Amino acid sequence: MDSKIVNLKSKLEIYKAMTDGGNLSDCPVRDVIQGLSGKWSSLLMAALAEQPYRFGELRRLVPDISQRMLTQTLYDLQRDGYVHRKVFPTKPPSVEYSLTDLGRSMFGALQHLLQWAELNHDAVRDARAGFDAAQA
Amino acid sequence: MDSKIVNLKSKLEIYKAMTDGGNLSDCPVRDVIQGLSGKWSSLLMAALAEQPYRFGELRRLVPDISQRMLTQTLYDLQRDGYVHRKVFPTKPPSVEYSLTDLGRSMFGALQHLLQWAELNHDAVRDARAGFDAAQA
DNA sequence: TAGTGCTGGTCTCTTTTTGAGACTGCCAAG
DNA sequence: CTTGGCAGTCTCAAAAAGAGACCAGCACTA
Fold it and tell me: Residue A95 CB closer than 7 angstroms to strand C?
């Protein structure tokens, strides 16, 4: 049931990479993580990891995202090289979004976290409930 | 150099877990991911995975976080059960933050993503630069 | 021929979240 | 007696996100 951790850097080194020796505003690791830490990024990555989707399909698949945020999140994911945007010159034109190789590679890493969330969400729920009860 | 993926669910299943069969606003997986998707959560988790820190130490360690967001992010992480907050009754009282077992477990999963970011940030940078150039 | 709907968005307005920084109370050192 | 460290809170401004109207172009329908 455990997933093996192979060749990971020490925790110390990971943290160092995120502070980048003081050059905080330009730290590349934080820069990359920032792009993934939006509210909708991981959800859309998970959807597109399953299969390519069109704009309207994604909208129906994730009904509680606003059109504005769907547009913008897809734009950001495309800009960072995770998502490919292909326009078909039909009438009206349709647009298909799919993962790039880089996107699939990144999702391979993100997947661990999503998996953890699925396996442990009741522990988090319990912690939250207990904390709120103790505060009251 | 590759890290082995053991016993991961199919991509389809992960996405399904995030949509939870239509029960979107109450989906536990999205709920958990939401708590981690803040701007500072992963950075503070990485710091505390290295060693316990006090409030002021964290503030100096991450100089570009505002005091308000440091307080609030630590509060949220504590509420979700990842972080333990221990008050020492010195004068003035000092407060130490450390990871719980749940927090360490979660960081084990998060670590893959941080590691990926470190290994691939130049690819993302390149993609971004290329995209911006193409837009201009 | 007028109305309806689908395509993938943009625009504006309001609400929420975040950031910057002043302020608190307590105590110890200089 | 002023200064500084401790761990925050409070207020106000700026940025981000959400809600929903609106756009052009074409197909289908009545």
Answer: yes
ipTM: 0.89
Strand pairing category for A83-88 and B53-54: unpaired
Q: Which residue from B11, B112, B55, B22 is spatially nearest to A113, judged by alpha carbons?
A: B112
State the nucleotide closest to B93 in CA–C1' terms.
D6
CA A55 to chain centroid = 18
CA nearest to A128, candidates B11, B28, B40: B28
CATH code: domain of residue A127? 1.10.10.10
Q: Is B102 left (phi over 0), alpha (psi -120 to 50) or beta?
A: alpha
Quote the domain boundaries for residue B52: 38-106
Residue A8 inside a domain? The answer is: no
- In this structure, is residue B48 part of a structural domain? yes
Q: Which of B45, B98, B111 to mutate to test the interface with A (most CBs of A within 10 A)?
A: B111
CA pair distance A117, A98, nearest whole angstrom: 24
Å: B83 CA to C26 C1': 27
Provide the number of structural domains found in chain A.
Answer: 1
Structure confidence by residue, pLDDT tens digits, B99-115: 999 999 999 999 999 99
Q: Between chains, do A14 and B111 touch, taking CB under 8 Å as contact? A: yes
Strand partners, B133: none
List the nucleotides on chain C closer than 7 A to a protein CB: 6-12, 18-22, 25-28
Task: Give the span between the Cα atoms of B59 and B74, in whole angstroms.
Answer: 12
Evaluate the omega torsion of the peptide bond into residue B92 and state whether it is cis, within 30 degrees of 0.
Answer: yes
pLDDT digits (tens, 9 = 90+) for A22-75: 566 568 889 999 999 999 999 999 999 999 999 999 999 998 999 999 999 999
Does residue B68 lie in a domain region?
yes
